[in-house]
Each structure stands twice: as C-alpha cells, then as structure tokens.
Amino acid sequence: MEIPSLVLFFTLIGQLLFIGIAFGSVIGEEEFHEELVLRPLPDRKVMGHFHFESRAPPSNSFGRHHHLFPKAIAQLVKKFQVKEMELSFTQGRWNYEQWGSFDPIPSNNAKPPGVELWAVFNLPQEQVDASWKNLTHTLSGLFCASINFLESSTSYSAPEWSFPPASGSLRYGTLPREAVCTENLTPWLKLLPCRDKDGLSALMHRPSIYKGFYHSQRLRLTSIASNLEGLGPGIVLEQTLTVVLQPDNQKNMMYSSKPNLQPGWSMSSIFGRKVNGRCMLAKSSNVYLQFERGLVSELKNLEKENGKSGDENLALEGFLSNPYFELSIKPDRIFQEVNNFHIKGPSIIYEFQVDKYSESLPFDLGLTWKIPIGWTCQQAPLHACRFLMGSGNERGAIAISLKSIESIMSSLDANSLDGSCKLQVDIFQVVPWYIKVYYHTLGVFVDGKPHAVRDIVEKIHVSPSKDKESPGVMEMVLKLPCGVKSAALTIEFDKGFLHIDEYPPDANQGFDIPSAVISFPNFHSNLLFLGDGSLNKSPIISVFQKKSPVLSYTEVLLVPLTTPDFSMPYNVITITCTVFALYFGSLLNVLRRRVGEEERFLKSKAAKKTGPVSQLLSKILAKLRRKKWEPPSSPEAASSSSFINSKLVFKVILVAAIAVCWQYYSG
Asked: What are the TM regions of this chain, as residue ranges (predicted)?
C-alpha cells in the first residue's frame, strides 16, 4: 500500500511543477491599493488626489497570466524594455501661488498643459530612438490620443542631467496643445481592476471632474529587476488623478453672515456621488483629509489667542470638539508630521478606512467651517515665471523671472553666517527648431543688475536645434546667493519660416514653446510622520515620505510666426478655372458653329414669318409713302453673315488678349 501512495504523491508533485513552468513562476502576489487625499485650499476650493497602485511581482515571462495587473502594461514593458515611464494628460495650469508648490503632490503631480511623456529604456543607445517611436504609437492607440506625433525627432529631446531621472537612455516630449477629454480618461480607468464601477474610482463622475479648474491624470510605471535567475522584472504601476474643484457654496454664502467663511463641502457635493464601499479586489482602501502646514499654523495661532496651548488638542482630540471646524465622520487614525525646519509647522492627516462602509451605509466625508479663516500655502524658494519680449514677426526674446519667497529666503540667509550660502536652481528648457535661439546672447540679472554668466551659471549644456530634425535643448545649473530677491534670464531668438505643408490647421493661433522645468535639488518636498509600521503599508504615505526635489513648470509660451494667407490658393484656383472655362468655351463655340447652316436657318425662319396679311400691310404702307413695293428679302439673313463674321473676329481677339495678359501677370 505504500508504493502506490508514493507513486500518486510524486505524480501530483510533477503535475504541479508542470503547471508552474507552463504558467510562469511567481514570487509574491499581485496587489492593488486605492486611496484618496482631500485638501481644502486657501482660495475656497478643494483639491482631490486619487492614488491607485498596482504591483506585479517578478515572474517567468512564459505564459504569464495576470489577476489584477493590467496585461497591456505588462506587455508594453516587456516589448519595449521600459525601465521607467511617466505619461500625463493635463487640462488647466496648477496655480503655484495659491495652491502651493513645496509639497509632494504639486512637485510630483502638477504637470504642464497637454501631454507630457518621458521614458527610460533598458537598451543600448542605438536602439533607444526606435523603441521610443514604437512606444508613442502604442500609447497613442491605448489612450486614444495624438501621442504618435512625438515620434518625430523634432518633437522629443534627450536631457542629460537637468530633468529627473537623469539617464543617457531618457527621452522626453510634450504636446502642449493636446486636448484632454473623456476619451483619454476611459482607457485610463480600464486599467483599474474595478474600473469606475466600485470603490473610490466610482467618484470619478465625468461632469464633476471636467468642470473643475485643474485636472491632471498621470500614469507612472517602474520596472523592478529580480535577483533570481530566470524571472522577469516586477512592475509597479501608479495611477493618479488630481483635480481642483469649486464646492457648491451658493446656498452657504446666501445664509451666512460671515463673508470670509470658508465654504463647507462634502464628497457628494463636490463629486456628485458617495462611496458605497471599497473595491473588492483592493488590499486597502483609505480616504485622507490633509490640513497643510499653513492651515495648521493658523489654527494653532487661534488656539493661542484663545488661551489654549492645543497642539495635541488639535491633532488628537480637536476633530470633533474644536470651535473652528467640524467633520461629519470620526477619523480612524490621525497622523502628525514631524516638524524639522519648516517655519509654518507640521501638517496633519486624518485617515478614514472605507472597508466598513457599504451601500446601506455609504461613506460621505464632509467638512464644515465654523469661523472665518485664511492661510497661505508653502511656496518653493523661488517663484518662476516665463514670458516673451519684443514685437513683430522677425525676432524676440525669452525671459525667465525668479522671485524669492521672503520666509524661506530669510531663513536661509540667517543660517549662512559667512555669506557663502548658495541656492542651486536647475533649469531645463526645450525650444522648437523654428525658434532660432542665439545662446551666446544669454543674459543674467540678479536684483535688477546685470551679472557675468560665469558668475551665476555654474554648469550649462546646450544642444542647438537643427532645421526640421531636432529641437534646441538648454540645461543650466544656477548658483544664486541666498539673499537674492529676484533673478532673471534672457535669451534672444529669430523666428523661422515654415513650408506651407508644415503649418497646423489653426496656424493663426500661434505656435507653442513647451513649459520649462525649474527644480531645486537642495529642497525636498517630503513629509515625515511618526507612527507604527502600518504607515509603510500605505502607498500614498510612502510617496509623501519619499525625498523628491521641489519642482515646478513655467507657462507655455505662444509665439506668433509669419503665416501666409491660406485663402490665396483658393482665389488663384478659382480665377484660373474661370479664365480657362471662358477661353475654351468660346473657342469650342466658335469652332463648332457653321455659318451657312445659320443663314439657311434664318431665311427659312423669315419666310415662315412672312404671310399674306403682312404682305398686304407692307403694300399699303408703300403706297402711303409713295414708294415702290419690293418683296421682303430677309434683312436678318442678309445682315447675319457680316454680323457673324465681325462677332467671330471680336471674340477671337478678346480671348487672345485675355490669355496674353494672364500669362504676362502670372509670369
């Protein structure tokens, strides 16, 4: 009895090994997390940041089957050897002055208008461009967008070190004029396990999202290499959607006696829906309400004015009993940021777990303010602004203005006792080939005074543009004194001429210069929280705690170029066709007309018209006039021959004169 049992045992083991080889070896399990961060903004708006993370562990590449991870993304990574990639669709522009820039969300998710795509390939240099072109076509079909226009060498660049992540196999491209609509959001939602049918993604009501002031959907994937031989890389896919919405506060303002009162809102009022529980395939589903540093600092000042010390009161007990605001749902946990060097103090995050809610008890978080309150968001060390100088369609200049933020710069200046403190600023700018930039005209101004370029610019890399081949790229590292109040960079350019086939359909609108990227490598926008090990299990909290440089995008510049009158070809075609029709019509009419037949026709017609009554009348008239009566000889027929001959000669001369004049003026 023991031998058959052993045979059966080894048979089962062999079948399991065969199934493992056929369907691929997997280390770990696929995971999916969904999270939402809500944040009140100083200008009476609310920011919503959706964060979805899908993980596929390292596995055998043969016969791989995915349970949660989107198969299209896995095939894309394998086909084009993508090491890291980010794609964003943005409508509107992030308001850095009102909504802040010294924060992980704007630093990582505030994107330029239109489409931005960058990718790092795990390939030799000679194969990177070909993989980039194939990748753009694949993403264009996957997301129903015009990303395939980035395949042209005039539309993308290869940054050396100024754009993170810096790598030799990095390719970067933007389409500032790409329109964003539901056709791009629907394929993005199809990558989620529950799509928009359940969980937090059900809040993405199209009319509510697209009526906002800012909307940016982002997709970022990272390939993680495996240490085990024979296993393919793992993939981490992050999908984020950042929206800035205006609460429906007309009713609150109508009955409020405090004009500066912040509007109260709830999830159902800003998104139009409630959450009926988590996605059943999600490992975690949480909603976070974040009070940023400026708001927390203002609330603490109010606590001190009322005679309360209340740091712990606000963070741990004040969510229900404080006189400043009221939450409709009690939070499950509260996290307070560790205050290291920030002047405004720590931020506070309230966590709400969606697991315990269902259709019978939907989740609808609401915030109601009891007193008027105002605050400012924390800014980057320098506020960047870019604009055009000059006039006309021949030449101009690009200017980048940097203005200091008093609080941050004063603290930096105070810390530098010997005056050797320097503020590093990295600038990355791409200019289309038809903007002929003269890089030797670079000018630097600090506090309104001109400075030598070598005194401020520590490092610079310039890749001049080539006509109809590649754009111009400029990368710079600036070292500014910490006490700087303002700085400006100017560079001159000439406007080129395009072939008529290279103009877009709306050429009179102008041509776009993509946004410049301004980063501060010495400043990091991470948030540090004290807590147990459960904090590391939250993907969004892990992103908040990761060190990333403060980064911002400038405006997209609109440059008017010399544009031809596209109605002229139509006018020329119309006049030419008219002249040819008159010429050939008259010529064919003259060549096909027979004079003898016309004379016989006129005689017969005149004979038919002459009758006895007309002859009698003509005789009576002749006697009255005392003239001799003559029978009618068809005067029409008699004069027709000479008339036709003169008419023929006149037409031929007229047509010949028109043809000669047309050839003369057209030549």
From this structure: 570-591, 648-665
